[in-house]
């Protein structure tokens, strides 16, 4: 049983004829014989040569899948931060295992839809003059605010539970832009609530309102893009 550092483990990435090694809870496994690890990649999102302890905790299967492969060594462990879990939360996750993986994917689609629907209905109102489209846009804003709060809460939980809340570029971008989107949504909702005719005002305020409303399109697209890269990382040529 060889002792591996992270740098040494990274050399066994399953490419260019090298074996494919992965680590889980300090044990290094040789998964080279698995057809699911062809060229050192599994399901187009996990790469050999890495410690997959956090990834397997979020996987749809149990860690016993690794037991069928040879153990070739031990990985030198860093001192990872502890994640004290409240007793009620531990009970909830034990009773409902799906909560470990699915809450964020289940909730994140709602704010995406409503944030994109708001500028869509605003555009239809400008195009047709039908006030019903503007009213629908206002309702979409309200739903987007509630959806964002739920998605951000489950997102923080997933980040803490699966990744020990470690610094990650995509997560940092998602948090920053999601908070910005929530602030903009609240501003537009309160503004429209107090000034129902703001979109048709001729004092210049309507232009600012429209710019903020249509800003949801790039904001949502960027957040969605980086969220997707966490689930389906880009393939390196």
Structure characterization notes:
- By secondary structure, this protein is an alpha+beta fold.
- The protein has two domains: about 1-75, Roll (Flavocytochrome B2, Chain A, domain 1); about 85-230.
- The chain is built from eight helices and six strands.
- It has helices spanning about 5-10, 55, 85-95, 105-130, 130-165, 170-195, 205-215, 215-230; strands at about 1-5, 20-25, 25-30, 40, 45, 70-75.
- The strands form two sheets. It has a four-stranded mixed sheet.
- A hairpin with a 2-residue loop joins strand 2 and strand 3.
- Helix 4 (about 105-130) packs antiparallel against helix 5 (about 130-165), helix 4 (about 105-130) runs antiparallel to helix 8 (about 215-230) and helix 6 packs antiparallel against helix 8 (about 215-230).
- The radius of gyration is 23 Å and the shape is elongated.
State the gist of this model.
By secondary structure, the chain is of the alpha+beta class. The chain has 2 domains: 2-75, Flavocytochrome B2, Chain A, domain 1 (Roll), CATH 3.10.120.10; 87-231. It is 55% helix and 8% strand.
State the helical fraction: 40-55%
Mean pLDDT: 84
Total helical segments: 8
Radius of gyration, in Å, reads 23 Å
Order of helices and strands: EHEEEEHEHHHHHH
Q: Rough shape? A: elongated
Strand content: 5-15%
Key phrases:
237 residues; alpha+beta; Flavocytochrome B2, Chain A, domain 1; four-stranded mixed sheet; two-stranded antiparallel sheet; 8 helices; 8% strand
């Amino acid at each position: 049983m060889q002792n591996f550092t992270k740098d040494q483990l990274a050399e066994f990435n399953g490419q260019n004829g090298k074996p494919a090694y992965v680590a889980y809870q300090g044990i290094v496994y040789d998964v080279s014989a698995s057809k699911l690890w062809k060229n050192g990649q599994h399901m187009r999102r996990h790469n050999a040569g890495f410690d997959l302890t956090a990834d397997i905790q979020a996987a749809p299967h149990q860690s016993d899948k690794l037991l069928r492969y040879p153990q070739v060594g031990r990985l030198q462990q860093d001192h990872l931060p502890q994640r004290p879990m409240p007793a009620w939360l531990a009970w909830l996750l034990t009773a409902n295992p799906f909560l470990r993986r699915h809450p964020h994917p289940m909730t994140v689609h709602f704010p995406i839809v409503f944030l994109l629907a708001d500028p869509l209905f605003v555009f239809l109102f400008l195009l047709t003059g039908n006030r019903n489209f503007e009213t629908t846009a206002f309702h979409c804003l309200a739903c987007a605010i509630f959806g964002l709060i739920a998605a951000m809460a489950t997102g923080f939980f997933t980040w803490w539970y699966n990744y020990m809340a470690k610094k990650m570029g995509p997560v940092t971008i998602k948090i920053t832009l999601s908070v910005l989107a929530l602030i903009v949504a609240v501003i537009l909702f309160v503004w429209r609530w107090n000034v129902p005719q703001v979109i048709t005002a001729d004092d210049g305020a309507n232009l600012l309102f429209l710019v903020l409303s249509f800003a949801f399109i790039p904001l949502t697209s960027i957040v969605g893009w980086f969220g997707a890269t966490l689930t389906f990382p880009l393939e390196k040529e």
